[in-house]
Amino acid sequence: xxxxxxxxxxxxxxxxxxxxxxxxxxxxxxxxxxxxxxxxxxxxxxxxxxxxxxxxxxxxxxxxxxxxxxxxxxxxxxxxxxxxxxxxxxxxxxxxxxxxxxxxxxxxxxxxxxxxxxxxxxxxxxxxxxxxxxxxxxxxxxxxxxxxxxxxxxxxxxxxxxxxxxxxxxxxxxxxxxxxxxxxxxxxxxxxxxxxxxxxxxxxxxxxxxxxxxxxxxxxxxxxxxxxxxxxxxxxxxxxxxxxxxxxxxxxxxxxxxxxxxxxxxxxxxxxxxxxxxxxxxxxxxxxxxxxxxxxxxxxxxxxxxxxxxxxxxxxxxxxxxxxxxxxxxxxxxxxxxxxxxxxxxxxxxxxxxxxxxxxxxxxxxxxxxxxxxxxxxxxxxxxxxxxxxxxxxxxxxxxxxxxxxxxxxxxxxxxxxxxxxxxxxxxxxxxxxxxxxxxxxxxxxxxxxxxxxxxxxxxxxxxxxxxxxxxxxxxxxxxxxxxxxxx
Length: 488
Prior knowledge:
By secondary structure, this protein is of the alpha+beta class. Helices cover 44% and strands 21% of the residues.
């Protein structure tokens, strides 16, 4: 028999808490605790609930039912056949408990509570497959644990020990057999593009804006001139017609390169796509989102990829079959949200900055009412991405791949009661994805219609007013020098 020293020091407190709960006069406890405790005998309550979940047509609840029953069985076996033998403990003295609550005491050891272990195991296991249902069952499991104290069957320490045992087994089970994430997409392997090595940059034409990125463009221009001496350089001034210059450059190039911000890159990419040319992106803007996600965050990385002939095929997002979008598009207040978040990040951590930016937009912006894929929606935040971004919620982060064939759509709906309070609670708790205000989808096509003209901002550009925006993903249509994967 193993003695647990910590229980000896806590036994007096355990008894005092037990007496305070079990002896407290309460008609509500008298009426509910005994039937609830009896319903959980031999796991009957949980088996009934598992049966109800199994009869639904939702696969996540069916998986949760199986996981819950298996974990419950393991917890019950470990608590009753191992735990009680390792630490025999007398049951509480129930002589002063009210008759309405008193039940016949088992003769086995009091520690740990088998009912509590089973309850916690079932609720936690279900939560790994479906969090909202698991949370509701967790409250029920807590009530079952309370019933074991009020009916005189266990001390609070016994119940706590059972909870720890059951929930621990459920967590261990989730590690051994991970729950199914229905948001995980099975994608085809990356598709490398075959390009000849160009050690000196022969056949490469690069459009460079020396003024981009607060002087970064000028430094990139010097580096390209030195590292790829055979490349043709076309300098672009602010007043120049970039669209015309890109068209002329594509006509006589084997590789079309660009050094500038995301908006400049998207414009040149359209001409590379139309001419069937590979694109070389030299990061020279402020953020360089696309260059980072294709693995060319520096000019040196792009030069190395051109010299070695390393390229990949990536997706391109088309707006109304004309505008090329390499990163994201948005309507409503999302551009303002991004601007305010970047401003607040100068003095606060990113989650705090994002929270403050969201509150700013909620206070000072008006929702936009549009029709999305046939359904009318009133929204403040709308984000649409070329490819699936890494993190769920309003702060999408980076893309792991740019060749998945899907558009990432995320938005917040408005017109709900206490929506600002609910949004604030979801943001602070990190559970925005579980909020009914938040919607998310990954689709190959998406359409937005509006009775009034709206602007669709994309890749740092404000966009032109339109009443209809058709988004279509052009699957792996653009060849780009780089790895097309985020470095690990």
